[in-house]
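Annex B. Sample input.
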Amino acid sequence: MKIQMMTPRPLPPAPSSGDRLETAFLTEMLKIAMPDQSGTPFHGGAGESQFSSFLVEQHAAAIAARIDLRLDSRLEVTP
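Annex B, continued. Sample output.
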């Protein structure tokens, strides 16, 4: 059996400061907008409570990748 070496995938480009700002802004907005599921019978328990912030952040990153809030144009750049 012959084993072939896999070539590593190139890393995606690092998000700009404007993209990170939009993600942080949308994360805070989604924390307010998404209802708390802790009292429902289908709640995931302590594990869901611990990891829900990661899910909210991923949702915010996906939204920020799709739309442009143009928050980066409001950043002041000082030399």
